[in-house]
Specification:
By secondary structure, the chain is of the alpha/beta class. It folds into 2 domains: 185 residues, Glycogen Phosphorylase B (Rossmann fold, 3-Layer(aba) Sandwich); 173 residues, Rossmann fold (3-Layer(aba) Sandwich). It has 13 helices and 13 strands. Helix 10 links the parallel strand 11 and strand 12. Helix 2 packs across helix 3.
Length: 380
């Protein structure tokens, strides 16, 4: 890759969800290494894009996904700027990239965040079979594919017979490069802000709370896991809930304030809360793909208790004892794991940062791409 055009189909700056954060950080780090231009919707705050160029070319309405006027615009832009590669975030604009490739010869890479049809099937969308066929066809036609999880890559290779050589791992990355030394400082900051006792353990759940899998997980914490924790009289703790989009009918969780629940809402620095946390709770049971909040939690020093579904996509071999997996629907086992792991001050293994730091990810990506196509960094 010498000069790249990326298509981001929705607002991601500033980011509020794990998927938006993935796109924002990927572009920022990739733009520091190569010549990158991103087209997206005008609703982004493009002043936050520091290392790459941006063009607000996509319509705000859903019709942008079938806007055939984009074909001529991107063909002209590709010829004018000399792009050699198009990266599509998700497969939704693969049809557009293929049309441009036909006229210009650019390579097309699809950056998957999940196997999309599986995610929509798990959330009950009736049209998932149509998406499945489109997604499979897009994978077959692409010149390259970036996969956020090894499981998704293996699914594409084994179930859809996608060529192994064009499948590349691109995990969700973290900014931090080693185990944080300032956890004690942020713990004091958080306990003072929320009037938590020095002897109380901090448990955390965060995510976009108008996203169905997250709100389902929150309700499991409130109504199934927390009552089991309360039954352990010797356990002193608070559960902090962070994230925007909590449904109005849940009334800011006021009914749970006397049950060790603190609703912090959207916070400016989730990293501070992750550093303060003893255990991150991840009882997610649907949604597909890697749970980005879990990747960050381990990086910032929290131990994660997760369901088997919640732990999907993370490279377990590099987590050491910082990841504890419990069977889906086993809430007694989940609560037991929380109690047993509350007082285990274990550091995140160095191998974890070697795999999940953005610096390592981009370096490995460019090396892998250079094996198959010309790849030129900004330093060249």
């Amino acid at each position: 890759m010498k000069k790249v055009l990326a298509i981001a189909p929705y607002p991601y700056l500033p980011f509020f969800s794990g998927g938006q954060k993935f796109i924002a950080h990927f572009f920022e780090h990739l733009g520091s290494a190569i010549d990158l231009t991103v087209i997206s919707v005008a609703e982004n705050d493009f002043s936050l894009a520091k290392s790459y160029k941006t063009i607000p070319l996509l319509k705000k309405s859903f019709s942008r996904y079938i806007d055939r006027s984009l074909i001529a615009k991107l063909i002209n832009l590709t010829k004018k700027e000399g792009f050699d590669t198009i990266i599509c975030e998700h497969p939704y604009f693969a049809w557009l990239a293929f049309a441009v490739r036909k006229r210009t010869g650019v390579k097309v890479i699809i950056h998957t965040h999940n196997i999309e049809y599986q995610r929509f099937r798990s959330t009950g969308k009736w049209w998932w079979p149509v998406l499945k066929q489109y997604e499979k066809n897009s994978f077959e036609k692409a010149d390259g594919l970036f996969f956020i999880t090894p499981e998704d890559r293996e699914f594409a290779i084994n179930n859809w017979k996608i060529e192994k050589e064009k499948c590349i791992d691109l995990p969700f990355g973290v900014e931090i490069k080693s185990y944080p030394e300032d956890k004690a400082y942020y713990r004091q900051t958080v306990i003072q802000k929320h009037a938590i006792g020095d002897n109380e353990r901090i448990f955390l759940f965060n995510g976009l709370l108008n996203y169905q899998p997250n709100i389902e997980a929150l309700k499991i914490i409130l109504d199934k896991i927390n009552p089991l924790l309360i039954a352990h009289a010797a356990l002193k703790y608070k559960i902090i809930i962070c994230g925007k989009g909590l449904p109005e009918e849940m009334n800011d969780l006021k009914d749970y304030r006397d049950k060790n629940i603190i609703y912090a809402g959207f916070v400016d620095s989730i990293e501070a809360y992750l550093k303060a946390t003893d255990i991150f709770l991840n009882p997610v049971q649907s949604g597909g793909g890697v749970k980005t909040k879990m990747v960050e939690a381990i990086a910032y020093g929290a131990t994660v208790i997760a369901t088997e579904t919640g732990a999907t996509g993370i490279l377990k071999d590099v987590c050491g004892d910082k990841l504890v997996i419990v069977a889906d629907d086993d809430w007694e086992g989940f609560a037991k794991a929380v109690v047993e792991d509350t007082n285990k001050p274990i550091e995140t293994p160095a191998e974890y940062y070697n795999y999940y730091s953005w610096e390592k990810i981009i370096n490995n990506l460019l090396i892998r791409l250079s094996d198959h196509t010309t790849c030129q960094t900004k330093d060249n």
